[in-house]
Amino acid sequence: MGDDIMSYNGGVALAMKGKECVAIACDKRYGVQNRTIATNFTKIFQYGDHCFVALCGLATDVQTVSERLKFRTNLYELREQRKLKPIVLYNMLTNLLYERRFGPYFVYALVAGLDPKTGETFVYDSDNIGAISDNVNLATVGTASDFIFGLGELFFKPNMNPDELFEATSQALLNGVDRDSASGWGAIVYVIEKDKITLRELKGRQD
Amino acid sequence: MVESIIGIRGKNFVLLAQDANTTKYGILNMKFDTNRLFKLSEHCAMLAAGEPGDVVQFAEYVGKNIQLYKMINGIELSPYACANFTRHEMATSLRSRNSFLANLIVGGYSTNERDQQRVQLYSIDYLGAMVSANVVAHGFCQFFALGIGDRFWKEDLTVEEALAMLQIIVNELGKRMAAYPHCVFVRIIDEKGIHVLDNMYPEKIHVAKPSEGELQTTADMMDIHT
């Protein structure tokens, strides 16, 4: 660990696509280096009906970036009189991060969303200075992201239905965080479909 | 780091405890009745520990601004609002010329009936990361308070149970911290406001006298004086 700022607080998040559904999941640990302080610190924030953002990294910046993004999305909805689309949210987030190009926020971000009319799914990720990615099948951020990428690639199948997607996402997350001391202590999974959003809490190993 | 601040959430109250020592040069005990509690509103208070100047400057700045809000708008901010305001100020100052090395605990009782959770307790570290928990602490006492809290905290804690848990924590601090907390100030915040409870003291440690048997050496045991 040493003084690596991205692993000071720990935490991990993952997003995966299915057929007309997306899942986004994160762990619940809040710690300071090797000490766990709280087990209710979720890193997923909702902006709009079907748009979710997960932020992993330094906890203070997770909270600051989510607040600043909320401010911008609120103004967007007031001015435009319409709800956000995932691609718009993603562009706002990357713009927010790039504004601090030479004094960046220490968060990596994931955006997951759905278009409720067409069922088109969106999963994007970003580094801490707002690098734009393509619309990918699977994305992870955080201290255990490498472990979860491997498991995610293994469990991912194209066109999964919501239940299969939930299973794949939760198994990838739970088994990945078991290999990382800075993540874990429970998890939450949002499965976003055209007509409903399901939030499930996973218990997992409480260490 | 050697200053202890602890918060415990109870059924309809928040217990805020702080050690009352001021140490200098890592070794001298300057003062035994230091106050670390800053009142934010009638039902909300903040414990602050860390760099001495920063603690007072930041806490007074936040406290006065919250009181100003009350004067302008005529309503008291809930502990949740106070904590979020404090966190925002801390996070803004982090990347500016003046950052504050102060760890805080904000706790209180919300007077807004529509709040789901009336008893609110938050921990804010010097970087501006805020989290809500049932037992919160900052400094070296974190190692003891959080572990003891995991063991003894339960839903709907009564005042007596919370004070018993706090006494266990204070006894551990007295036993294991080189910076011995001579006295711990205890305050409680419930729907009636902020009240000061009796001071808490660590239990006296009783150590067995060494036995005379230990004073014998092997040479003594060899009987050479027959």
Automatic annotation (TrEMBL), chain A:
Matching PROSITE patterns, A to Z? PROTEASOME_BETA_1, PROTEASOME_BETA_2
* GO biological process, alphabetically ordered: proteasome-mediated ubiquitin-dependent protein catabolic process
The record's Gene Ontology cellular component field reads:
cytoplasm; nucleus; proteasome core complex, beta-subunit complex
Q: Where in the cell is it found?
A: Cytoplasm; Nucleus
**Which InterPro entries does the annotation name?**
Ntn_hydrolases_N (IPR029055), Proteasome_beta_3 (IPR033811), Proteasome_bsu_CS (IPR016050), Proteasome_sua/b (IPR001353), Proteasome_suB-type (IPR023333)
Lineage, top-rank taxon, reads Eukaryota
Q: Pfam families recorded for this chain?
A: Proteasome
Q: Which UniProt keywords apply?
A: Cytoplasm, Nucleus, Proteasome
The main location class comes to: cytoplasm
Q: What does this protein do?
A: Component of the proteasome, a multicatalytic proteinase complex which is characterized by its ability to cleave peptides with Arg, Phe, Tyr, Leu, and Glu adjacent to the leaving group at neutral or slightly basic pH. The proteasome has an ATP-dependent proteolytic activity.
Q: Which family does it belong to?
A: Belongs to the peptidase T1B family.
How does this protein assemble? Answer: Component of the proteasome complex.
Q: Which PANTHER family match?
A: METALLOPROTEASE TLDD, PROTEASOME SUBUNIT BETA TYPE-3
Q: What is this protein called?
A: Proteasome subunit beta
The organism's lineage?
Answer: Eukaryota, Metazoa, Spiralia, Gnathifera, Rotifera
TrEMBL record, chain B:
- As given in the record, the signal peptide range reads none
Localization, per the record, is: Cytoplasm; Nucleus
Is the keyword Nucleus assigned to this protein? yes
User: Where is it mostly found?
Assistant: cytoplasm
Q: Which UniProt keywords apply?
A: Cytoplasm, Nucleus, Proteasome
Any one biological process term the GO annotation gives: proteasomal protein catabolic process
Cellular component aspect of the GO annotation: cytoplasm; nucleus; proteasome core complex
Q: Does the keyword Nucleus apply?
A: yes
Question: How is this protein organized at the quaternary level?
Answer: Component of the proteasome complex.
The entry's function note states: Component of the proteasome, a multicatalytic proteinase complex which is characterized by its ability to cleave peptides with Arg, Phe, Tyr, Leu, and Glu adjacent to the leaving group at neutral or slightly basic pH. The proteasome has an ATP-dependent proteolytic activity.
Family the UniProt entry places it in: Belongs to the peptidase T1B family.
Q: What is this protein called in UniProt?
A: Proteasome subunit beta
Q: Which organism is it from?
A: Rotaria sordida
